[in-house]
Amino acid sequence: MKALTTIIASLSAAAISLGATFETDAALSGNMRSDEHNNYVVKNTGKESGQLVLDFDLSGCPLENAPQFAAIYMQAFSPDEKLAHGGLTLSLDGRDISGAAVHIGHSEVYFPITREIQKAFAKGKKKLTFTVRQNGGADAQNMVVPGCVKLFISDDRHYELGEYMRPLWKAGKMTDESIFFIGGENGEPAKGSLFFKPKKIISARSYGTGKELKEGVDFKVDGENITLTKNTEAVWMPYNLIYNSDPEKLHKPGGNFPTTRPGVFMFFTEGDWFHKHDTYFTYEHGGEGWESERFGEKLDAKKLPKTIAKLKKGESVRITLYGDSITENANASARAKCPPLTVSWGDLAAEALRAKYKKADIAVFNRALGGKTLGWGMENAEGLAAPDKSDLYIIAFGMNDGCPGRERSEGLEFIMKKAREQNPDAEFIIVTPMTANPLWFVSAAHDSYEESDRQMEREGVAVANVRAAHKELQKKKPFIDMTGNNANHPNDFLIRVYAQVVASKLMQLK
Predict the structure, then answer these.
(1) Whole-structure pTM over 0.90, yes or no?
(2) Whole-angstrom Cα distance, residue 14 to residue 218?
(3) Which of 465, 493, 474, 455 is nearest to 193 (CA)?
(4) 55-103 confidence digits (pLDDT tens)
(5) CB atoms within 10 A of CB 41
(6) How buried is residue 17: exposed, middle or buried, by Cβ count under 10 Å (0-12/13-18/19+)?
(7) Which one in 100, 165, 216, 224 has a CA-CA gap of 20 to 30 Å to 111?
(8) Residue 124 near residue 425, CB atoms below 8 Å
């Protein structure tokens, strides 16, 4: 195979680009004060909420095609744990359109606004004014760093929503199934596996290098197995840089953790590293081998009747996402501004709902934060999630928990109670977590959530069993093929699984 240094160096020369992009700073104003470091204080006094006004000038935007992705990125932080009981809510023309929670330390806050930018372009608008306010209880506040509020727009996303939301178990076309190629422990050629036996490989590509790979030249196919050739242009990693008895010899930079294999450590890292080292295959298949739930095949409208009725009538529907880093958007390519610009699983599910229920006005408020547990969710439900007064709450804690199923059920019921105190008609989707890397740990508690969550189902409460789908995939594919950090986060492919399983509770997937 080609020298590893040559392959890694090519990651910076991406032929698969974002197309035309535009990024501009916001002009900030509003009725809030600044702190001693000139950060803007967005505070809820209990009587009125201080607002930060974001003015964007689009007159210099070079995009000729309609925008396919847009988001506002800002640096923000909560000054004190006791004050971090509210999130930021983004509005346009007096209508709430997005929301986020904020970490204690400096972090990037992300508001996806593709739909609003598309409408602005269609109307020929050159200036847009958004407002950001603090929701939650009295005295809740967050700080926004001046000079770090930007609007990013791209006219190319490299995927079709219909293809990404097509049930992955369904015979026909599989789009962008990921493989992380690793060389053999004794120097054997790098190999990987697809879930289904391909009838025809349509494409194979790396979003990191931009290379379009060719069957017979870069890889060979034997059933579900893919083996890289000696002179492949594909990205691959030597075995000893991912697994090693000496953690200092693993790939740098990055972290490591001891595996369930005695004396063996494994590499992990955050950001877009794994995304850029994955190879994505699109192929035709017969659908043989899927044994788990065929989510999206039929819609059980009795579980969430109020939300589905509002969607069908074309009414306004508010959705709150509440969970940990998996829900927040960790490792999704859109967060890193790299192709194919896959958004969080919650936003991807919302896009599918907008495409299905075209007249409905759907707003998504992402109140998830990385590293948080169900206990944190209980503590902050009243001040962070419930004030959204959403029609639907999608609750997805679990990865950072170790509590038994009964305790989890009690915590989830508490969160739902707090939400219903502010909107008695609120409905809920409970999401079981994906598995962690089984070479890191296997959690009996997490496994128990499938049954304890199932027992909570009733009218107004549905369960999206992502864990079952992830386990099914791992019967044929290693965890590393579907992860954004090699520990406990999904990559773009598994984000789609989350989105499909969740959306299937509100629509039939095709």
Answers:
(1) yes
(2) 18
(3) 474
(4) 999 998 988 888 999 999 999 988 776 555 568 999 999 999 999 999 8
(5) 16
(6) middle
(7) 165
(8) no
Residue type, position 229, single letter:
T
Q: Which of 393, 465, 403 is nearest to 434 (CA)?
A: 465
Q: What whole-number percentage of the chain has pLDDT above 70? A: 93
Burial 342-381 (b: 16+ CB within 10 A, else e): bbbbbbbbbbbbbebbeebebbbbbbbbbebbbebbbebb
Whether residue 278 has pLDDT greater than 60:
yes
Q: How far apart are CA 238 and CA 139, in angstroms?
A: 53
Tokens of 283: 């192929």
What's the whole-number average pLDDT of the chain? 91
- Tokens 């296997």 sit at which residue? 442
**Pairing state between β 427-431 and 40-43:** unpaired
> What is 17-70 written as a DSSP string?
---SEEEEEPEEEES--B-TT--EEEEB-SS-B-EEEEEEE-TT----SPPSEE
